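Minutes, project check-in
Item: structure for the 178-residue chain
Input as provided by the requester:
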Amino acid sequence: MTRKFSSISVESTLASGISNSQTTLTVATGTGSALLGGVTLAAGNVDQFTLALDPDTTNEEIVFATAVAADTFTIVRARAGSSGISHSGGATVRHVLTSDDLTFFNTGVATADAAIPKSTVTTKGDLIVATASGVVTRVGVGSNTQVLTADSTTASGVKWAAATGGASLPDTFMLMGA
């Protein structure tokens, strides 16, 4: 799921109250798109947008909006350590950034940092090979007509070498009919 963020913190109000387990909320007429601050949520609940209900009060609840239709949001309740509680009509609804969002971001950065960087390969035809568990290196492309060969004496375990053995066809040959 992709988290979406607006560069502005816009707020609205609940058009009507919601129970502690309701999975939709409706904001004041005409304020749904403004609350998103220009962000769009892809269909299929693949995106989420963090909202606070009754922010900065004892009734604060963090929810993730996963879909929006005009002024009605589909929500996942009680996120970022908050509890699902009832909220009255007129309660403030605000886009927020939470520590849970930042943890999600940091986890993504750590995952990306552990990925093999594109800079590992530098030339057309380069290969990435393992030299040990979790350790990779670049093997540059060989010369034309060379083949990749297993070789446990090299650091990478493979090398480019001239093709040897096997059958080859003569330059010219004749097909015999039956």
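Outcome recorded: The longest helix spans residues 99-114.
No further action items on this chain.
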